[in-house]
Amino acid sequence: MYQEGKIFLGKAGEEKVFIYPKMANRHGLIAGATGTGKTVTLKVLAESFSDCGVPVFFADVKGDLAAMCNIGSANENLQKRIDALGLASEGFEYRSYPTCFWDVYGEYGMPLRTTISEMGPLLLSRIMDLNETQADILSLVFKIADDENLLLIDTKDLRSMLQYVSENAAQYSAQYGNIAKQSVAAITRSLVALEAEGGELFFGEPALDIKDWIRTDNTGKGVIQVLDCRKLIQNPTMYATFLLWMMSELFETLPEAGDLDKPRMIFFFDEAHLLFEDAPKSLKSKIEQVVKLIRSKGVGIYFVTQKPSDVPDGVLSQLGNKVQHALRAYTPAEQKAVKAAAQSYRENPAFDTYNTLLELGIGEALVSVLDESGVPTMVQRCTILPPQSQMGALDDTIRQREIQNNPLYVRYAESVDRDSAYEFLSRHAMQTAEAKVAEKEAQAQAKAAEKEAQARAKATKRAVSSVASTAAGTIGREIGNALGKSVGGSFGKKLGGNLGASLGRGLLKTFLK
Ligand SMILES: Nc1ncnc2c1ncn2[C@@H]1O[C@H](COP(=O)(O)OP(=O)(O)OP(=O)(O)O)[C@@H](O)[C@H]1O
Ligand SMILES: [Mg+2]
């Protein structure tokens, strides 16, 4: 709930626990074992940020968040919580929230597309599981496309670009460094696999303009962008890469903001461990850097995961607002992780952090936030508010209606295939082929003409010598009137046909002169 200009998250006994909008861009963590209440906490936070006029993005991994577009309904458990927290007098009411559905596969939301060049070689290499050499070559291919002003929008653009570079590998190797054809072939194979996994759908246009996400509705509530990830999460690397891409888009799009009264946008990363698992070092340090810098652009990032240790230390140390649900400590490794989690809080003399972490009930959490002056508050044992919107899954018919009624639907529903590298290179290949055919034809024609000329020359030579000899013979033998007849006759016979006749005529004429 949004109260007194603050995000009311829950109660520690009689005391209200708030997150300060001014400090909400100092990022956050929602952690806890499975079933302890992380998703509901995320929901409660998203609702409050929306009420506060802050746009929100989150990935819906299980499909249990989308129903925020519907008004919540009472049940026994919720009522118990409402009573226990005394929320009736706090203005708690069931309500719906402005939501916008997206899906990279275009099934459970508006199609969320990006272009190959916006995704960039680093993230693409990760999706395509390329080794270091292949990743370097992919970067070169991007550079060549850039230098040649070729747009890389969809996967067929990249495919034709790879083919083009491979065909001209010698030339480009000299200019850009070694480009092994085998590596290009391996990249192409990975690309084909990516296309089969849906790459053909989500690389294309119209690409998402992330500014469309930074919106409030006409009542001033922040619009909640819900990315349906039930299918995407089946490929964890792809899921992680997409979320990273969104974060980097936000980072690149938004100008520096300094300290604002409230964030420009809040971003929730569910299943956050997937962002870092198996990520190459270069990518991890990039994430760390973006998390650090995006704060000053007014974006708060909240990582949702089971254990705090799922998030690398460099990122963890930047998370100012922490909601830690119950943890389990059955194994020595788990005990160690709980100890580390407990030690990361400012102790509260009223209870033992470690033991409390193990005994927290569902929808209860240890909470520490940054106070108005940016100092971490003492850890509090907090009962989290219930959500105001509907819990559970969203009916498919309602979802489709919501999608089609969205004003952005007209803009994003249909894909557009613009003239880009594929079209250009196809034309180029066709023109090259046509030029080759024309060149061959020209060569053949030249050859034929040459042959003809040779033949003509030969014939002329023969005719001349024949005319000469015949003429000489005739002159010698008959002398007088028979001359023209004999010459014409013998010459005509030797050359044959019209050509012979006309040549004979001409020659005869000259001869007779
Ligand atoms: N703040 C709360 N108010 C009311 N009910 C809650 C609250 N927190 C948790 N619950 C109840 O506990 C159930 C499990 O919570 P939730 O789905 O948030 O767990 P989770 O930690 O996200 O689990 P998982 O790791 O499996 O995703 C909810 O469906 C809801 O019934
Ligand atoms: Mg959950």
Account of the 3D structure:
The protein is α/β, with parallel strands linked by helices and 513 residues long. The chain folds into 3 domains: 2-113 and 206-412, P-loop containing nucleotide triphosphate hydrolases (Rossmann fold, 3-Layer(aba) Sandwich); 117-202; 441-512, no CATH class. It contains 18 helices and 13 strands. It has helices at residues 38-51, 76-84, 116-127, 132-147, 155-167, 169-176, 181-202, 236-253, 273-276, 281-294, 313-316, 332-343, 353-359, 396-405, 409-412, 421-477, 483-495, 497-512; strands at 2-3, 6-12, 15-19, 28-31, 56-60, 99-103, 110-111, 224-228, 265-269, 299-305, 321-324, 364-368, 380-384. Strands 1, 2, 3, 4, 5, 6, 7, 8, 9, 10, 11, 12 and 13 form a 13-stranded mixed sheet that branches. A hairpin with a 2-residue loop joins strand 2 (6-12) and strand 3 (15-19). Helix 3 runs antiparallel to helix 8, helix 5 packs antiparallel against helix 7 (181-202) and helix 12 (332-343) crosses helix 13 (353-359). The longest helix has 57 residues, at 421-477. The radius of gyration is 39 Å and the shape is elongated. The termini are far apart. The model is unreliable at 473-513 (pLDDT under 50). Bound molecules: adenosine-5'-triphosphate and magnesium ion. Magnesium ion binds at residues 38-39.
